[in-house]
Structure formats: C-alpha cells, structure tokens
Design a protein that fits this description.
Blueprint (H helix, E strand, L loop, with lengths): L1 E4 L2 E3 L5 E8 L4 E6 L11 H17 L14 H12 L5 H19 L9 H13 L11 H20 L5 H8 L13 H7 L7 H11 L5 H10 L3 H5 L6 E2 L4 E4 L1 E6 L2 E6 L7 E4 L2 H20 L8 E4 L6 E4 L17 H13 L5 H14 L4 H8 L4 H9 L3 H12 L19
Parallel strand pairs: 8-10
Antiparallel strand pairs: 1-2, 2-3, 3-4, 5-6, 6-9, 7-8, 10-11
Helix pairs in contact: 2-3, 2-5, 4-5, 8-12, 9-13, 14-15
C-alpha cells in the first residue's frame, strides 16, 4: 500500500481506504475500510477522507445508524446464492468462474449447510491451514499459499455480503472480519514459500557472466555454479558430498542440507520428501565438477597440512553421529570446510566491484526462470526445484521477465512473411 496522509492509504489498484483507531475506556476500535456501506470503492483520496471523518463522528457520538433486527437465520449456501443473484453481476466473468469452482469443489461440502452465525473463526482458520498444509479430498495435496489466499478473500466477500444483507450481527461480523486483533487471517507462510514469493531479483546472463569472472578468483565459484546450473538452495549446496555427484550419468542427488544448530554445523534432512531429488546436469557442468573432484582428492593425498578435520553432526535418518573430515564436495584449497557463511564475503566483493546485489537465492530463481522460459515440462521443473506444490512451479511460467520477453520478440519475428516461398515452386539446384 502506498502512503498518502495519516489514516488514508492507497491500494495497489489505485483506489483508497482508511483506518479508524479509537482507544477509549468506553470505545475501542481498530479497523480499516476499503469500501463504503454499499460495497463501492473509494475512487479518490477525498472520498476516503470524507467517509473516515463521518465514520469517526458516528462512532464517537454513538449516532451510528442502527441495523435492522435479524429475523431469519441463513446458511452459508443461502448467502452464496444471494451473492450470485445480487453481487456477482458486477464482477468479471473470470472472477465469478473461479469463485464457483471454489464453492462447488471445496467450500460447499465443508460449510454449505452450516448456519453462518454458528461458524467460528476457528472453523475457518483450521480449514485454511488444512488446505495449505495437507490439501483436501478434491486434490489430496497441499495448495499453494497464493491459492489459499483466494479462499480467505472469498470468505471475506461472502460475510461482507451477508453483513450488507443484514444476515449477520454486527458484533459477530466485526470480530471475525473487521477488527484487526481478532479477524480471520492466513496460516503462517512456510519459509520455502516465503522465499519463492519474495520479490527476488532474476539476473541477466551478462550479470551471471560478470559475477562468475569475479568468483573464479576464489573458492565460491563451484557453489555459484551449483546455484545457477542446478537451482539449489544455499543449505542444499553446502550439504553435498562427493558421492552425491555422478559424473558418469551427469546427475546430482539432493537429500540433505548443511545447517548451523546449537553452535555446531549439522547435516540435516531436507524439509520435505519432494525436496529429495536427483538433478540432471549438462555435460559441460559435469566436466567442471569432475575436474573439481579430481583436484579435491589430489589435495587430500599430497597436502600434509590439509585441514579437513572439522566435526559435523549427521542428523539425517533420525540419527546423531559425528563426522570427522567428511567427503564434502566444497572445501577451501587448504582443506577447510566451506559453509553457508562464505557467501557473505563474496556478497561484499561483488557489490563493491560490480554494483550487483548478490543473493544466492536469486541464482535459484534465475535458473528456474530460464528453464521455464525454455518450456521445460512443468513436472520436470517441479522435480528439479524440489517444490512441494505445483502452483509454486507454475508461477515461473506466468511471471513476466526479460527471458520471456526475449522469446516473445523472437516469436513475433517468426510472423514475418516477406521471405516466404511458394512450396509448389520447383527447387533450384543452385540454391542447394
């Protein structure tokens, strides 16, 4: 939201809203409004300001218009039918179609026959959490955070419509959908989804080339390539062992991650079963890793001062055992274990020399974005990324980026007909 003046804010769609905060012994209010009492948006800052001033005056004076007495109990399916008759006509066709899908495939079975004055915050909160973490009988898999947000918005819409139709009491409605401390909210987002949805930069290939030239000077070059060519997460990269790399089949197995826990480095299981995966790599990158592993093993043999004596706790497979100088893929030339901490130094170097903000997760985003723009089958890309939900992977095919724009320009150029030839003309042997 874009700030304007105190108590007024602008929404991403250009409309306005206002916030009312009153903290008296006899009156406590903390809520926001994005529409007037008839469900119309505030098109201008002045209209939002006028509505706010009127609302504050009504609340402080106690002269807010009294609502009619509720004489009939409504089930949620009754509200949905009323919404289709009165409210949906002003919505875009695609929006209504999506809402119908949510209702028919999901919500109606769970809440359709229940009275709205009996449904509680806990009912809806538990349902949203269930969709997000486990899914439901319709798909039997977890739904993406963005998809579940659609259910949250639909509940707000239905109850807002019920309030407008005087089908639910003000106290119940405000507690569940208006008052900030108590209103319905989304389940806590998982760290994985937060990383995916954050607005993280996607690098151009020229930026990748620039950073690679800088990183060739030190020990972070191979971790950099693993992030770019394989789309690995930072902790997955540094958890790799030599035996995880197969330079014959050109694959890398991902089944653990390196984390710092309780003052010591630990090998831990990856977060989900979907994150356990085997990634295919190019022959070019396989050759680079082959040479890297050869040099790594050679140093261990000839360097008497090789410092590969760190202790790492292996917590994979529910066991806790010490690893002394394990076969980690990433080590400094003197044998010291490379960890996730090493990224900090190279972030400063790249920023100072190139002016580029280097985030390791941006390498993952760049890799997956390029692969999506090249029309990699979505299930293959989902497996490569280790995504839990296909909707997370699908976002890479939808989001705008320079790689897709370049491909669009090439495709548009293919529309040219100036050099088209008649397929029925005889072939000139001189053209062969």
């Amino acid at each position: 939201m874009k700030g304007t003046e105190k108590g007024i804010f602008q929404l991403p769609n250009g409309n306005y809203g206002y916030r009312v905060v009153i903290n008296r012994k006899d009156l406590k209010v903390d809520t926001t409004y994005r529409q007037d009492e008839n469900g119309n948006p505030f098109k201008t800052m002045a209209s939002a300001r006028d509505a706010r001033d009127l609302k504050i005056a009504e609340l402080k004076s106690g002269n807010a218009p009294k609502r009619k007495e509720i004489t009939k109990r409504y089930k949620l399916k009754d509200i949905y039918e009323l919404y289709l008759q009165k409210g949906a006509t002003a919505k875009a066709h695609a929006t209504v179609r999506k809402q119908k899908s949510m209702w028919e495939n999901h919500i109606s079975k769970k809440f359709g026959d229940k009275y709205i004055d009996e449904l509680t915050l806990n009912d809806f909160e538990s349902y949203l959490a269930e969709l997000y973490h486990y899914g439901d009988e319709y798909a039997n898999r977890p739904y993406s955070y963005k998809y579940v947000e659609g259910f949250l918005k639909f509940f707000y819409l239905l109850y807002g419509f019920a309030y407008k139709e005087n089908a639910i009491g003000a106290d119940n409605y405000h507690k569940m959908f208006v008052d900030k401390p108590t209103r319905l909210t989304m389940p806590k987002i998982t760290p994985e989804d937060k990383d995916e949805y954050d607005d993280i930069k996607v690098y151009s290939k020229y930026e990748i080339k620039q950073m690679a030239e800088v990183l060739k000077r030190g020990h972070f070059y191979i971790p950099f390539l693993l992030g770019y060519y394989c789309g690995l997460r930072l902790s997955e990269t540094f958890g790799l062992m030599i035996e995880d790399v197969d330079v014959i089949d050109n694959t890398i197995t991902i089944n653990k991650q390196l984390l710092y826990q309780d003052g010591i480095w630990c090998l831990c299981d990856v977060k989900t079963l979907q994150a356990i995966r085997k990634i295919h790599i190019s022959q070019e990158f396989s050759d680079i890793l082959r040479e890297h592993i050869f040099k790594l093993l050679e140093r261990q043999t000839v360097n008497e001062g090789y410092r590969n004596y760190e202790t790492v706790i292996d917590k994979t497979n529910r066991q806790h055992k010490k690893i002394q100088g394990g076969n980690f893929l990433l080590r400094k030339e003197n044998g010291e274990l490379l960890t996730t901490n090493s990224v900090k130094y190279w972030q400063r170097v790249i920023k100072d020399e190139l002016g580029i903000d280097f985030l390791y997760h941006s390498l993952r985003k760049t890799c997956l974005t390029i692969m999506a723009s090249l029309n990699t089958p979505i299930l293959e890309l989902m497996e490569m990324a280790g995504h839990k939900k296909i909707e997370t992977t699908r976002a890479y095919y939808i989001n705008k980026n320079e790689y897709k724009f370049d491909k669009l320009k090439k495709n548009l150029a293919e529309l040219s007909f100036e050099n088209a030839k008649n397929p029925n003309e005889p072939i000139n042997v001189d053209d062969l």
